[in-house]
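Notebook entry, structure prediction.
Reason for the run: the old model in the group folder had no record of what sequence produced it. Starting over properly, with the input documented here first.
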Amino acid sequence: MNAATMNHAPATTDLCDAHEDRLADGRLRVLPDLFRLALGQRSAACGPAVTLKLFEDNTLVRAQLEMPGEGSVLVVDGGASLRRALVGGNLGKLAEQNGWAAILVNGAVRDADELDACAICVRALGASPRKTPKGGAGSVNVAVEVAGVSIQRGEWIYIDRDGILVSSEAL
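New structure, fully documented this time:
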């Protein structure tokens, strides 16, 4: 997926309407409406998931965003903690520069104005002004559970203002 494709994510409503069979059998899942903070210049994005599982330490987030994103969506399972921000303005700029389509944070972000200026799509549970310690703990490319929905590396994430979908394959 290239940058031009990232701007044309299909509407989540249309995907749900067209794939009711996948919704019924679990191949298409809808994340609960918990990701209230929507930042970045892109209101919609889609791409294959790259997953991280960590807690109040964003070392692995930086390491992943330093790699070429190639239109992927970084899914960060931060254990729903709102005490420390896992993504800030510097990481948003890094994601933009390296071709990431979006960052989905099951936790907090910071530097909202800086993230808003980035040409990516960011969704998070909320914000926190506190940075994280840097210990490097966590796991990369493992199955994560976000708001009760399982997400595997390579599954497709679709994000827009109506919701967030997880699909076992590209739709």
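Summary: Residues 124 and 143 are 19 Å apart (CA to CA).
The old model has been moved to the deprecated folder.
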